[in-house]
Write a structure and sequence with these properties.
Involved in the TCA cycle. Catalyzes the stereospecific interconversion of fumarate to L-malate. The protein is mainly α. The chain has 3 domains: 118 residues, Fumarase/aspartase (N-terminal domain) (Fumarase C, Chain B, domain 1, Orthogonal Bundle), CATH 1.10.275; 245 residues, Fumarase/aspartase (Central domain) (Fumarase C, Chain A, domain 2, Up-down Bundle); 54 residues, Fumarase/aspartase (C-terminal domain) (Ribonucleotide Reductase Protein R1, domain 1, Orthogonal Bundle), CATH 1.10.40.30. 58% of the residues lie in helices and 7% in strands. It contains 18 helices and 8 strands. The protein has a two-stranded antiparallel ribbon with strand order 1-2.
């Protein structure tokens, strides 16, 4: 152990730790979950510290040699090279002041280490006076929250959703000629093609990707420059604008200074809105995953319209059993996401006065959801959707057995007559065609045209009958 000092006095710190006394106090104060803040958040904090140092240098507030040192170490943090030196628990001070000081201390101590000086010397850089110049935890942590979450959505979630949308669209094309029975209320309905059904799933995935892109734009306003309570005390007036410009150049995303710094620090409504988008995405993915596993149920006693890829044995006791494990995995991730996003909503609701003090928990929930959703979506696309096959014979069998083909007879014999035909067919086990011909309700050729399931899948192929599901 070595001894370092902060404003509260001396503190023993592990010899190999790049952090200092303030961080060690937090490690001792918050032994709660054993989970530090997400790596993506820490990396985002590195990018923010880099931008702040460069802005201070541009403004003539920080000497070039100090700025260069801060940027060098901040780049290491942004590259994930110093993650081991960020040990503080998620459940800590709600402003994450401890994590901001963690970064300040790591940057100062790493600079000393690079120069061959003792760690903790504070001779090259002071954690507060130099690394934290023009900043407060109260604006830097909300800024890091926005930057890091935006980057995670942009680089992880959007590509995964695009991949799924593409995979589903390929299947829509592949299955375009497979006629199957539709279902509403879990009951037989009129026919459609399996391709049409999958085109709906592909559209859901495309919309999910667009919602993810919208989430990135929701995070564009940054709190940097507000310092303690939003007034910008101890901060140069041009500092926030320069930081946002540098962050935009570094990340390729369009960040800007908050229009109102009191809102940007006192509220977390933008993060709550992002939580709403992630919840919607999770709901879409759940619908797709559930439909696919139900369509693949069987293989003999279920619907069996799809053949799902076999990825692993499904039972320790039933030989040959294969389960829809990829759908089950994705649904569980989506359920997890809904719970995490509800937490984010409650966190946003419980901000008080000039600062929301649930920032570490919000960071954990948002990053955890994005990480899990992105990975689960990618795996589902690769190990389930890409390998789906249609059971054409089974699809046609269920179409031929369905009574809802009778819907196409409405324009020819009327709703009441059609209903009577359907009821008799169900009761007797006879076909719709047999009963219609027996009752002499239609000529055979016209009846065959009306009952053609392929024609029913084409827009405007028949005149619409009475409404209802």
């Amino acid at each position: 152990m070595r001894t370092e000092k902060d404003s509260m006095g001396e503190m023993p710190v592990p010899d190999d730790a790049l952090y200092g006394a303030s961080t060690q106090r937090a490690v001792l104060n918050f032994p709660v979950s054993g989970r530090p803040l997400p790596e993506a958040f820490v990396r985002g904090l590195g990018v923010v510290k880099l931008a702040c140092a460069r802005a201070n240098e541009e403004l003539g507030l920080l000497p070039r040699e100090k700025s260069t040192l801060i940027q060098q170490v901040a780049r290491e943090i942004a590259d994930g090279k110093l993650n081991a030196h960020f040990p503080i628990d998620v459940f800590q001070t709600g402003s994450a002041t401890s994590t901001n000081m963690n970064a300040n201390e790591v940057i100062a101590n790493r600079a000393s280490q690079l120069a061959g000086l003792p760690i903790g010397a504070k001779k090259l850089l002071h954690p507060n006076d130099d690394v934290n110049l023009g900043q407060s935890s109260n604006d830097i942590i909300p800024t890091t929250l926005h930057v890091s979450v935006a980057l995670a959505v942009h680089h992880q979630l959007v590509p995964a959703l695009d991949q799924l949308a593409t995979a589903l669209a390929r299947k829509a094309t592949e299955f375009a000629g497979v006629v199957k029975i539709g279902r509403t209320h879990l009951m037989d309905a009129t026919p459609l093609t399996l391709g049409q059904e999958f085109s709906g799933y592909a559209a859901q995935a495309r919309k999910a990707a667009e919602r993810a892109r919208l989430a990135v734009t929701m995070l564009a306003e940054l709190a940097v420059g507000g310092t303690a309570v939003g007034t910008g005390i101890n901060c140069h007036a041009e500092f926030p604008g320069r930081v946002c410009r540098i962050l935009s150049a570094e990340t390729g995303l369009d960040f800007r200074e908050a229009a109102n710094h009191f809102e940007a620090q006192g509220a977390r409504d933008d993060c709550v809105a992002v939580a709403g988008q992630l919840s919607t995405i999770a709901a879409s993915l759940t619908k797709i995953a559930n439909d696919i596993r139900l369509l693949g149920s069987g293989p003999r006693a279920g619907l069996g319209e799809l053949r799902l890829p076999a990825t692993q044995p499904g039972s320790s006791i039933m030989p040959g059993k294969v389960n829809p494990v990829m759908s089950e995995m994705l649904v569980q991730v989506c359920l997890y996401t809904h719970g995490l996003m509800q937490t984010v909503t409650l966190c946003g609701r419980d901000g008080h006065f000039e600062l929301n003090v649930t920032l570490p928990l919000m960071a954990h929930c948002l990053h955890e959801s994005i990480h899990c959703l992105a990975n689960a979506t990618r795996v589902f696309a690769e190990k389930c959707v890409d390998g789906l096959e249609a059971d054409v014979v089974r699809c046609r069998e269920l179409v031929d057995r369905s009574l809802m083909l009778v819907t196409a007879l409405n324009p020819h014999i009327g709703y009441d007559q059609a209903a009577a035909v359907a009821k008799e067919a169900l009761k007797t086990g006879r076909t719709l065609r047999e009963i219609v011909l027996e009752r002499k309700l239609m000529e055979p050729a016209a009846l065959d045209r009306a009952l053609d399931p392929v024609a029913m899948t084409k827009p405007n192929a028949t005149v619409a009958g009475a409404g209802g599901g």
